Amino acid sequence: MEFTLWTLLAIQIVIVFMWGWGLGWVRRLRDDSEMTLAPQPGETDEAGPRLTVVIAAHNEQERIEPCLRRLLAQNYGNLRVTVVNDRSDDRTRERVLGVMAQDPRVSLVDVSDLPAGWTGKTHALARGVQETDGEYLLFTDCDCRFVPGALAAVMQKVTRERLEFVSLWPRLDLVSPWEQSVSPAASWLLGLWGLWLSARGSSNSQVELGNGQFMLFSRAAYVRVGGHAGVRAELAEDIILAKKIAALGIRRWAGLGKGLYVTSRDNSFGAMCNSLTRVLVGSLVQPWRLAVSTQLLMGGICSPLLFIPLGVYLGVAQELTVGWLHAAVCTVQLMAMQQVTGRLFAITLEQPPSFWSFLRGAVVCMGIVFWALVVTCGLGHVRWGKTSYRVRGSRIVDVVPAAN
After folding, report:
1. What residues are paired with 167 via a beta bridge?
2. Whether pLDDT at 169 is above 60
3. Stated pTM of the model
């Protein structure tokens, strides 16, 4: 009994040191000017290379028009926007046509079917590119809100540094209570894996980051990596494309979207679980990584909830020194966690959650990770749009129409 407790204590001490390292990393991230850009509002610049924004829209009648208005208000003059209406059965198409009647920079592509072997969004984006002639392609979503001067700042950096790929991590506006509770824990988990899996060099340019809400390619780079056709069956096409970019040594930059754009999330509990399952399956791919992730959440976040009261009980009732040590170490872990998450979420979230909400969300997140493990093993399915997918690893192996 005592040997087990001492072993667990040693593990907790290692976890505390990891949180301490995380605090240092967050401080460096916050102070790293190479990770951020300031918007460049002002007079419209007509001289830059042509930039085409491609948006896949499925049943986005409420969000597509405000999204287009914000894009068209950007001060980057050589801008075009292509909307792909992907099998929508609401008024998405009519909303886009209304904007097109007022601004010729907007074009519409209609998609009525999904070919076998493709995910819906990936197919829609591939179709959109076929109808564009931009020198640069920016893939983004309807729920992204760009501040004035955001695209001008990005394109200024692209042309100055001759970049061919840029991806920006969004600043999140979590609207629904479930998103506010669970998404921070999921972001922490995926960020932890990202740090470990990314091939990081001595400079930011070596970071492998692909975020489908903001992925900008030169057309030449997009063709070199095979475009979306090369990742047609992937649930995390953005991550795979970024890895291909890195493997080819294409000049790239990854940074934080803070100050440039905000993405809203306002999902119900079911929609949030399904969306997060899709992201986890596509991002982590291997069942063992998802299995390890449940332990990372348990040991890295949730363990103090168990070991502090247990340690106090063992110290008082059993008079075991190791019990008091457990309680003390876990208290230090909680303090370190609060510092790390508070600083990190101040960078990435519009409204950072309370620390206790983060802990509760981690418990729910463990359940979603376990379901993602089941899906990855081919024993479940995940829905995207109106289609349900059965997957093996991160790739779809079967497509089943979702129930109405």
Report:
1. 215, 254
2. yes
3. 0.86
